[in-house]
Please model this.
Amino acid sequence: MSFHPFKRVSILFFLFSLGLTPFLLPAQAQPPEGPPTPVVAAPVEERTLAPKVELVGTAKPDRTSRVAAEVAGLVKEVKFNEGELIKEGAVLVGLDQTNLQLGLKAARAALSGVRIQLDEARKDLERAASLRATDSISVYNYEKDLYQVKNLEQAVARAEAETAQLEDTIRRMTVRAPFTGYIIEKHTELGQWLSPGAPVATIIDLSTIKVRGPLPERYIREIKPGFEASVVFDALGADSFKGQVTAVIPAADEKARTLPVEVSLPNPEGTIKAGLLARVTLTGTERKVLLVSKDALVLDRGRATVFVVKGDEVFPVEVQTGAAYGQQVEISGQIEPGQMVVVQGNERLRPGQKVSLAQGQASPSTAAPPSSPPK
Model:
């Protein structure tokens, strides 16, 4: 049944005259609050600790070399296999030297002939100098012998350079390992023609292993080159390997807010292989930190909040989190050591909400700050 607008106004006026309209209008006042919410609180602790940072990276060799031919030639011998450990200076590939050896033989013979001519010319010059001293020969004849010696000296120098060049080319036709390492890839075979710069083999040095991982930028002042590191490789079980930070690369990832940190560790037996997953634990410089239970954190869309108890009320404080120490986590923000924060019952708290601490807990107004444990 519907009412005409005029009739509806009349009915409201009639009810107002009877004092009944408050029952028909929305309530303006909040209902009275219920009893205080029971919670469990714990103090914010201050300790002197060295932060531990855990990173995940990959084992990399200390050096990687793609060994190449320096000169052109036909592969006459191949003296390595993939996976083999090669000593520094060991022959990897030998190129055919037949034509160059013949050319070197001819160059050495030519050099010997020029040297003989130079010896005879110098003797002639000595005789000419003696005769010139007594005016027995003209200046022209003396200078003629002198210029002959100089021309032959230039010829000897050219022949020596040509001979040395051939010897150097022949030496380069034997490709050797630049350092001790493992052959991980073979790029040539017997009978193949190699051009200058053509790859022969890829060799890696595993005597030192390097692990690079992302360091959160908040630890840039804590982790420095020279600091010790502990590394565990999943493939090698629970064994821990000792190393040290060798570099903190000063180029941060703008999205992840991390900087690459490099850890080096000795690997003389070659136990650690390239490519293994590595878990690195770094220990920073000792400093004072504030710690709360992980349960004190209320996380919402990337923000962390703790509820601080003041009297019988709670107030939210936004904090920044740091390293974790067991069941505790480092925090920073507008918070002080000794303040009580809610660790149980904080899921649905509101600013200014009345709370009651669990039986046996001290009131925040009388609780003393916890003493810092020994380092």
